[in-house]
Amino acid sequence: MTDVFSCADPEQRATGFAEAHAALTRSGLVVMPTDTVYGLAADAFDPAGVRRLLRAKGRTRRMPTPVLIASLDTLGALATNVSPEARQLAEAFWPGGLTLICRQQTSLSWDLGDSRGTVALRIPNQADALDLIGENGPLAVSSANTTGQSPATTVESARAMLGEAVDVYLDSGATPGGEPSTMVDATGESLIVVREGVVGLEQLREVVSSVESAGS
């Protein structure tokens, strides 16, 4: 059976993080907490791991996997032509519930799906998640559920759906759940909200007044 490690217990947490690192280096999958729901993670730079992630979820390449990072500095390393306005949003709402869709650096050797040269980036506001990313580098992370099912807010729920397809489960208790991150397309001349979530349009406009809604 796949092991579950409690992040509330220091010894289990240390063992779990070591097992997670080992799994990620061999194209394995890890279920991890975030500040919204549990995520299913693979090494963002490991195409085989990302393919495993998509298979485990029953998801096609037409829905590319977002990438979680641990610091604002990584934005410039993974994305290109980031506008001052997009950076302002990142500085204001990271860590937190904002995902920025950016043009990816052309030199990156990864395959997140049919992303058409873009990458969706976010810094989660959850300590265990940030530590895991800090130790392993950027992670391709999708919600820990099979396609068509509700995202998991507990490890038990994630395990019931994903089972042995996952190598390591990290348990930080129930996550807040609720709304997903707000997704902003920063690849064009304007910043456009393409998915509404925990960060409201008016909050975004308090930082960058020109942010548009896809419905407007």
Task: Describe the protein's architecture and organization.
The protein is an alpha/beta fold and 216 residues long. It has a single domain (3-177), classed as DHBP synthase (Alpha-Beta Complex), CATH 3.90.870.10. The protein is built from seven helices and twelve strands. It has helices at 10-25, 47-57, 73-78, 84-93, 127-136, 155-162, 201-207; strands at 3-6, 30-32, 39-43, 67-68, 79-80, 98-104, 118-122, 139-143, 168-171, 182-185, 192-195, 212-213. Strands 1, 2, 3, 4, 5, 6, 7, 8, 9, 10, 11 and 12 form a twelve-stranded mixed sheet that branches. A hairpin with a 6-residue loop joins strand 10 and strand 11. It starts with a strand and ends with a strand. The model has no long low-confidence stretch (mean pLDDT 93).
Index terms:
216 residues; alpha/beta; DHBP synthase; 12-stranded mixed β-sheet; 7 helices; 31% helix
Give the integer mean of the pLDDT values. Answer: 93
CATH class annotation: Alpha Beta
- Determine the CATH superfamily: DHBP synthase
Q: Over all CA atoms, what is the radius of gyration? A: 16 Å
Strand content: 15-25%
**From the 3D coordinates, which CATH architecture would you assign?**
Alpha-Beta Complex
- Total strand count, please? 12
Indicate the percent of residues in helices: 25-40%
**So how many helices?**
7
Judging from the principal axes of the Cα atoms, what is the shape? globular
Helix/strand order, N-terminal first: EHEEHEHEHEEHEHEEEHE
The number of distinct structural domains comes to 1
Tell me the distance between the termini.
50 Å
Which ranges are low-confidence, i.e. pLDDT below 50, for 5 or more consecutive residues? none
- Structural class comes to alpha/beta
CATH topology term: DHBP synthase
Largest sheet: 12 strands, mixed
